[in-house]
Amino acid sequence: MGSVERDESERKPRKPKKARAGGPQPVHAVDRCEPSRRAWIAEAIRKVEADANRSADTHLHVFPLPPEWGVELYLKDESVHPTGSLKHRLARSLFLYALSNGWIREGTPVIEASSGSTAVSEAYFARLLGLPFIAVMPRTTSPEKCALIEFHGGRCHFVDDPATIYAEAARLAAETGGHYMDQFTYAERATDWRANNNIAASIFEQLALEPHPEPAWIVVSAGTGGTAATIGRYVRYRRFQTRLAVVDPEGSAFYESWVSGDPSLTAKGSRIEGIGRPRVEPSFLPTVIDRMYRVPDAASLACMRWTAEVTGRSVGGSTGTNVWGALQIIADMRARGERGSVVTLICDGGERYTHTYLSDAWLAAQGIDIAPHLKELRALLPPA
C-alpha cells in the first residue's frame, strides 16, 4: 500500500497550550452532555409525573365486619388506577427510576419479565413516552391481561417455563438494544419509601380520621416484594407500631425462605397471578416482615369470590389471598380481645380472570375445590 501524506501539523508534536491568565493548566476532559437527550428525558419525566397528578389517590374502603368484633378492616383499592392494578404505582416508579438513571432515552425499547399486571402498566407508560414495549410472560398468563398489554401498544412474548422469563427478557434487551426494566430487582429501590405519595403514606393519611388511625396490622402479598419493602420501611421510619404481615400462595418460595432464613430456596411457582415466585426475588426484604402466612390456592380463590359477594366489588385472586390473610389476623386479634384496625389491598379487578379464576371449568381442570373454603367464609359473614 502506498504511504499516506500527512499534514505538516500532524507530524510535529503539539505544544501544550499556555495556561489561561489567572486559571489552572488545562487538563484532559470528555464532555458527554447532550442537551437534546436531557430535554427529552425532562419531558418524559414531566409526562409520567403528570399522569400521577391526574390519577390522584386510590380509595380506602371499609369492609363490612360486625361492629361487635371491635376490629375494622379496610381495603385499599388499587384497581382504580388508570391501568387497573397496584402495579401502576410500580410501573410509574420504575420508569422514573430508569429515566433519572439515564437508562432510557428516546426510542429505547423497554423489555419486562412479568406475570401480566406489571406489563399492562408498563405498556401504558411506554406508549405515553412513544417507546416500544415487549412483555416476556408465561404462556399461562390470562388472555384478558394479554389483551390489555396489546391494547396499550405492547407486544407479548411467551415462554413455556416461567422460570426462564428473566433470562429471556435480558436476551431480548441485548438483541434489540433495549432496556430490561427488571421489576424483580428494582422494585424495592425505585419507590421512595420515606413518603413522596407512596402507598404506605397514603394509607396512613386516609386513616387519620378513623377510630384506629394507626393500624395494628397491614397485610400484603409479595410478587416482587416491593410493596412489602415500602410499607415495612415506612412504618419503622415513622416510628409506628404497625406490624406487617405477608401472605404467600402455595408454590411460592417466599414463605419457606422467610421461615428458614435461606434465600436460595426455590419452588415450582404460583398459580395466583401477580404474587408468589419460584425464587426469592432481590426486592424481597425479609427483615421488615413481622409475620407470614402460607395460603392455599383454594382458599385464595374462594375468598376472591366471597369478597365480591360481601362488598359488591369484583376482585382478583391476589386480593383473595390478601383478605384471607387479613381474616386470620382478625381472628387472632379477637381471640386476644384486641381492638384496632387492619388494612389490606385490592390488587386488581376480577374482570382479568373471567377465563381462569372465575371459571368453574378452569378450577376443575386445575383440581381446585373452593367449596369447603367458600362454605366456611359464608358462615363467617353471609353475602350481602
TrEMBL record:
It is found in: Cytoplasm. Residues 1-29 are annotated as: Disordered. Residues 1-11 have a biased composition (Basic and acidic residues). Residues 63-348 form the Tryptophan synthase beta chain-like PALP domain. GO terms for biological process: L-cysteine catabolic process to pyruvate. It comes from the Bacteria. The modification N6-(pyridoxal phosphate)lysine is found at residue 87. HAMAP family: Cds1. It is an enzyme of class 4 (lyase). Its cofactor is pyridoxal 5'-phosphate. It catalyses: L-cysteine + H2O = hydrogen sulfide + pyruvate + NH4(+) + H(+). InterPro entries: Cds1, Cys_Synth/Cystath_Beta-Synth, TrpB-like_PALP, TrpB-like_PALP_sf. Its EC number is 4.4.1.1. Keywords: Cytoplasm, Lyase, Pyridoxal phosphate. GO terms for cellular component: cytoplasm. The keyword Cytoplasm applies. Belongs to the cysteine synthase/cystathionine beta-synthase family. Cds1 subfamily. This is L-cysteine desulfhydrase Cds1. One of its GO terms (molecular function) is pyridoxal phosphate binding. A cysteine desulfhydrase that generates hydrogen sulfide, H(2)S. The H(2)S produced by this enzyme modulates the balance between respiration and glycolysis, and contributes to redox homeostasis. Probably eliminates toxic levels of Cys (which can induce oxidative stress). A cysteine desulfhydrase that generates hydrogen sulfide, H(2)S. The H(2)S produced by this enzyme stimulates respiration in M.tuberculosis, mediated primarily via cytochrome bd with a lesser contribution from cytochrome bc1/aa3. H(2)S modulates the balance between respiration and glycolysis, and also contributes to redox homeostasis. Probably eliminates toxic levels of Cys (which can induce oxidative stress).
